[in-house]
Structures are given as C-alpha cells and as structure tokens.
Amino acid sequence: METIGFAGLGVMGEPICRNIVTKSGATAQVFDLSPAPMQRLAEYGARPAGSVGELAAEVDILFLSLPGGPQLDAVARGPGGILERGRAGLLVVDMTTAPVGLTREIAGDLAGRGIEWVDAPVARTRAAAEDGTLSIMVGGTDAQFHRVEHWLAHAAEEVTHCGPLGCGQVAKILNNMVLFETVVALSEALALGTSAGMDPELLFRVLSKGSADSFALRNHGMKAMLPGNFPEGAFPTDYALKDVSYALDLAREAGIAAPGAELAKARLDVSKAAGFGAEYFPALAKVTGKG
Is 172 labeled as catalytic in the residue annotation? Predict the structure, then answer.
C-alpha cells in the first residue's frame, strides 16, 4: 500500500485525515504547526513528522489542507517546502481552497521536479468532515483521479472528477460563491419577515417547503441564523471573504460581471468590520440592513 502524508490538521483537515487513516489502514505521517492534532491522530496510528518538507521527501501521496493561497504557496515553493524537498514520483493532493491561477502555477513548477499535483477542495460542513460525508471536487488527469479516488472516498460520500488541473478549484470556488449569495438572501428575508411581524422560525419552515428551499436554508439559516449560533470554531467570516475574493478574481480574469458575488463580499466586509471576522460567516445576518 502507498504511504501517505497529511499536512494541515485544522477544522477540516484533522477529521478528514482521521477518516482516511482509520478507514484505509494506511501507514501515515502527519504535520501541523500545532502539536495537539498530531497527538490526537497519533492515537489512531499516525506518526507525527517535523515538517511538510519531511513528508514530501518520504511519502508516496501528500494531502494538504491549508487556510488559503498564501499558506499553500509557502508550503509548496517556500524554503524547505515541497519544491525543494519533494521526491520525484510524489503525488500532492491539495484539499485547500486556493486560487485557480496559483494552483496551476505551483503544479507547473513542481512538474519540473517530477512531482504531480491534483486539486481536491472540499464542500459541506465540519460535521460532514467528522462523518466522512463531504463532497470533494477533483481537478487532474483521468489517471490521477483513479489513483486518488479511493483515498478521498474515505472522507466523502461524493468524489467528482471536475476536469483537468484547476477545475476542482473552479467548482469549489463557485460552490461557495453561490452559498454566500444565498446566505445574504436568507439574511434579508429574515430581517424583512421579522420586521413585518412574522415569526422567523415559521418563516424559514415555510420557505423550506417551497422553491426557496436549499441546503443553505436548512443548515446556515435554521441552525445558525435562527438560534443566533455563530461559533468561532466553524467556517469564519474571514475565510468566506477569502473564498469570495477568489470568485471575483475568476470573474475579472473572464471579463464577466458578478454583482451577486460583489454584494456577498460587501456584506461580509460589513460583518468583519463589526467585529465578526472570527465568527461563523452567517453572522452577517447580524448586520443586515446596516453599513
């Protein structure tokens, strides 16, 4: 069996790694800047490593789950990183949500060292990561997809080949763009319905029975907005701003106007300015109608 490494054991990375390790039975090495998740994963047989570069020099497949583009670039092309220390034949499976252009640049640079790159960002919630029911979108060749699909299936109920390199990121970025726009619409509906005298819980329940029903309504609306539950351990406003900026980058590169994404970014900016940058991003409902 191929040996695997996993770097980036945060909110999503740790449960993804745990599912892959426990369900595959593979020999795994892990790395994170924080020792705590490495210690927890050691209980499942994973061996802590000293750096990402160390993983890249030793394993067959290296999974990454990082906060965003800057961190990914530093790990891939920075001192002691994958470009410098990775061995020929290594396959990197990047589960970070990162800019499409950066993904293709890094992959091109690493190809010169005989290192392959697949983008495989994830969708759905932390609870889905815990349960192994994520949706994973993969960009790469057919051969690369067939090599990684069974690994990713340990962490997901849906693993989709979206096309060549970078297309996994395209799908993920646009998935999040639509989600953020929908959450903005839900926040407006909540504010308007409440001001007009309707019970907010009843309003969302009625919407869920009609054409306004959505994953966002049933999860972000009912489970976060209604109870006012915006924990800091979930997907924060700062991360949402990062992801919607990637969508706007795609729009600029394509020369296509994206006013819905612009509005979502504007509402997230207001939420961040109000002090909710670290809170679960549906907290933008708290500033709807302001700013």
Answer: yes
Tally: H helices and E strands in the chain: 13, 9
In tens digits, the chain (291 residues) has pLDDT values of 799 999 999 999 999 999 999 999 998 999 999 999 999 999 999 999 999 999 999 999 999 999 999 999 999 999 999 999 999 999 999 999 999 999 999 999 999 999 999 999 999 988 999 999 999 999 999 999 999 999 999 999 999 999 999 999 999 999 999 999 999 999 999 999 999 999 999 999 999 999 999 999 999 999 999 999 999 988 999 999 999 999 999 999 999 999 999 999 999 999 999 999 999 999 999 999 887
Find the catalytic residue in 23, 172, 209, 286.
Answer: 172
The answer to whether the beta carbons of residues 148 and 61 sit under 8 Å apart is yes
At 9, list the tokens. Answer: 């054991």
Place of tokens 């966002």: 216
Tell me how far apart the 2 most distant CA atoms of the chain are, in Å.
65
HSE-CB for 230 with a 13 A CA cutoff = 19
Which domains, and CATH codes, for the chain? 4-163 (3.40.50.720), 171-287 (1.10.1040.10)
Distance CA 155, CA 44 (A): 15
> For the whole prediction, is pTM greater than 0.85?
yes
Residue partners of 212: CB distance under 8 A and separation at least 6: 189
Report DSSP state, residue 217.
Answer: I
